[in-house]
Amino acid sequence: MEGLRQDDPARIGEFVTLARLDAESARHGVPERRFLARSSDGARTVVVSLPLPGTDPGRWAAEAQWAGRLTQPGFWPVTQLGGSAAFPWHATPYRPLLPLTAVLAAHGGPLPEATVRAIGAALAETLASAHVLGLVHGGISPASVLLTAHGPLLSCFGATRSLAPEGLPRAGLPGLEPGCLAPEAATGGPVDAAGDVHALGAVLAYLATGHTVPERNEVPAGLRPLIAACLSRDPAGRPAPARLLGELAPGAAYGTLTAGTEPLSLPGRVVAALSEQAAWVLAAELPAEVR
Amino acid sequence: MLSALLHDDPHSVGPYRLLARLGSGGMGTVYLARTAGGRTVAVKVLHQRLASDAVLRTRFRLESDAARVMGGRYGAGVVDADPSAPRPWLATEYVLGPPLDDAVRAAGPLPEPAVRVLGAALAEGLGRLHGSEVVHRDLKPSNVMVTTSGPKIIDFGVAHAVGEERLTHAGGALGTPAFMSPEQAADLEHGAAGDVFALAGVLVFAASGHGPFGSGQATDLLYRVRYAEPDLGGVPPALVPVLIRCLDKDPARRPTTAELAAALAEGSGGRRPADVLPDAVLREISRRAEGVWREPPHRLPPPPPDMLPHTVQAGPAMSRRRLFAVTAGAVVAGAGVTGGGVWAWLANQDGRDGGGGTDHANVSKQAKPPARLWTFTIRIPADHADVLSVGSGLAMPAGIVLCGVNAESGVLTWQANIADTWRYAPGGKTLYALRDADEGGSAALCEIDPTDGSLGEPLAELKDFAGDEARNQVLCVAEKTAYLVARAASASNWYVCAVDLSDGRVRWRTPIEAPQDENRPPMLCGSVVGDRLVLYRSDSGLSFLRLAVHGISDGKQHWTLSEPYDGAPPDRVVHDERHLYFGAAALKAVRITDGETAWRFGDLRDVGDSAGETRLYGAPVLHDGVLYAAEGDRGIVAVDAATGTVNWLEKNLKGRHLNRDAPPAVGDKYVYSLDDKGLRAVDLRTHRAVWTLATDASVLTADHDRDRLYVRREKETFALPLD
């Protein structure tokens, strides 16, 4: 979370912006612009997303519409779509959340293996349930995973599809984390379920080492075979999410991870960062002139 | 954490729109609230019915000032306050973290580094408070909120400026005995060093899961705080030396807050609170940070019209919803509503959760227990626990003190250092007490000032009687004459005597048997009935009640009687001008003139399932010529007091075990009785129970002047309308 800059919008639809969700330093690899904002009557606090400047707002809005229909647990829900064809936005009620990039920054480095497994297993479960329905996220990256006290949520649905039409090379596009992009998708190939698994592997690597493309010996031994399999160049060699789930959280009952009602065990400084964000948003007050 | 607003909660307070209830206590209600700019705060609002009380308004103002002094780093930051509003309010940040007692409950004893980091920060916080000449005076685990940025000290309800005149003289033993300083327990000035003592107790609790003086009866706790060595079992050895110094009985030998902070910070390596908190505590913090953003529950609808008679008298703060009970051991928490956090509070009053719109259809035809008018959190003594009307307020024994309580609000107004319930007695609306046995000299009888609980100049100095005898007893005061039982100054002889309060002279004295018990007075109770003084006595181990009746003009004994008696012996004389009444194996009336049995009720009656128990009839209560008592487990029986013939029997009561030791209480519409399911109201017309309030109460007192029913249970006393 970071203060607003001069070129940031002061208002988005009925909302007055309060802060940026993503720090400037972590902005690379974030496929949309995200703000904490509040309705001008003070009643509703939300996270609002906008397309990146220079990208196609129409394709972004189309993916947002799809995301709005998702009711799977584990996905960041899109509850309100607004704006115009040229300036679309979507909004979701606020809850304390940190992009994984901010999680590592708060913790001061890679997370303990137990935390990596807990977050990874929840993401694998979300993907497994989505893939069964034929839904491909197509935008998983450290910045698109929002960690809440109850676990991770997948946001930025369809980022890969929205940033460039199929067939065009995607490597080097702003907003895409190169390490998360499967080789086949980087060259303009289809964005499919195996691509999601590749991206999930890169996210696990990031959590465990701080890099989406880690040196092999950086990865904790217990996670090494798993992450290596996910990052396999051959899409057919990547494990299915359900298998990943079983290996990350042996014995966990399918369907229990993303629907949890109990807070997740997280490192102290991560809990502190979530709690400080919540306290900041609780104390934030809209200036009288914008109400 | 968030519960729904009640239908009669205000919509806004000051500039804040109310969203949900966080808790409610004796002084006020705490709401989650939001400004027009979307800032979310905790707002504490003084109860409407207390808002006209100048003393409480002043206390509220002092609490707001102390919270401001504490600031947002070590306390719940004050956002705004208006102590002069029609209903004073205080808005603070909403603190994201559990109170320390909940944290230890969730996580177990905290590891040493956590205790060091918390302790150092708490010591710094107290240092800041003391630097502004304010003492907290009620530091305890439930007043410390654990957050990821460090502990926050809350609830300045009893804080006061150093050297300041004690507000309403309620200072004394205010606080929580388990974490009191010895000077506080002795009713001496509790200064900054007293807060250091309390802080060490809090840290012992954090490190070991128990306070340094354990838990239990307030009496025992206060004794141990003053005289016993602290128990630091389970505390990491490296912490013991510094905590022992803080727990020195002599305030002058305790370290300052700065020394304590330095000693604790040593070896904690500058670690942040977030680095040292156990996972279970972190998850509690997460739960709160997330929970406050959930949609608050909807405001509850007003009750259906046919329930109104039971609820209109409820103050707005009284919720039928389940809130949280005050933690164990509080001698006094009537004033204790926290500022920023939550966590207080009213115990669940009828066992029902919610009570929203969903089940109205089913229950609307049935009367519900009324809401509490107030709750006073206090530990009650084992016997003689009646609530007395004194002056314009109430008095009730609590732990080892006698408390004066505002009858309208249930808020403590004074405390008197009278440990033993037999050492005071009412005469009309005045309370009389024996001078403290520790003062030695001769026995003396004084009046208790109904406004501040202080003992006045002796009305009678009884130089023939020993002042240092703790078992001396005041039985009753009638017609300007006090009836006492006392030991002679020169010998071990005991007397019952009549003292004329207009001139302080002993009118007569009559020798009696010395008490058999080292710790109990000779008599259970005594009362003037017409021109007789009736004395009840029971010797331990014998199930006989011994009655003695004396003339009040000369003390001459008229008759005695040994009455078989099972169950808890009576602590009051139930009588009218003709008879004394008992309930045990049977209900029985004894003639005051000669001790002969006037009538017996219950012999050979089938009283249901309780066969085998010897006490078949409960302690009775007399009201308008009718004697009411529990009969077996079958219900209330109402018997004509003059003739001993049955008026009515309770109908349709099943599956209850009736409390036969506590007498029922009688109002205009109901007779109230205790059983294993709670407090039952039996309709005087239909003779059926109309509602049961789930409670484990042990004493009922009807107050016909105010139309109140006082219900006492182990750790609290509450008031209901007496219907």
Structural account:
Chain B: InterPro entries: Kinase-like_dom_sf, PQQ_b-propeller_rpt, PQQ_rpt_dom, Prot_kinase_dom, Protein_kinase_ATP_BS, Quinoprotein_ADH-like_sf, Ser/Thr_kinase_AS, WD40/YVTN_repeat-like_dom_sf. The complex is a heterodimer of chains A (291) and B (723). By secondary structure, chain A is of the alpha+beta class. Chain A has helices at 57-69, 100-107, 113-132, 159-163, 183-186, 193-209, 224-230, 241-248, 268-283, and strands at 11-12, 15-20, 32-39, 45-51, 80-83, 88-93, 98-99, 145-148, 151-154. Chain A folds into 2 domains: 11-67 and 77-95 and 269-283, Phosphorylase Kinase, domain 1, CATH 3.30.200; 98-268, Orthogonal Bundle (Transferase(Phosphotransferase), domain 1), CATH 1.10.510.10. In chain A, 34% of the residues lie in helices and 15% in strands. The radius of gyration of chain A is 18 Å and the shape is globular. Chain B folds into 3 domains: 100-281, Orthogonal Bundle (Transferase(Phosphotransferase), domain 1); 390-523, YVTN repeat-like/Quinoprotein amine dehydrogenase (Methylamine Dehydrogenase, Chain H); 531-723, 7 Propeller (Methylamine Dehydrogenase, Chain H). In chain B, helix 2 (100-107) packs across helix 10 and helix 3 (112-131) packs antiparallel against helix 5 (192-208). The interface between A and B is medium-sized, with 35 and 31 residues.
First and last CA, distance of chain B: 34 Å
> Within the largest sheet of chain B, what's the order of strands?
1-2-3-4-6-5
Average of pLDDT of chain A: 91
Shape of chain B: globular
* Percent in helix of chain B: 10-25%
> What name is given to the CATH topology of the largest domain in chain A?
Transferase(Phosphotransferase), domain 1
Biggest sheet statistics of chain A: 6 strands, antiparallel
Form type of chain A: globular
Keywords (chain B): ATP-binding, Kinase, Nucleotide-binding, Transferase
Organism (chain B): Streptomyces viridiviolaceus
Protein name (chain B): PQQ-binding-like beta-propeller repeat protein
GO molecular function, one term (chain A): protein serine/threonine kinase activity
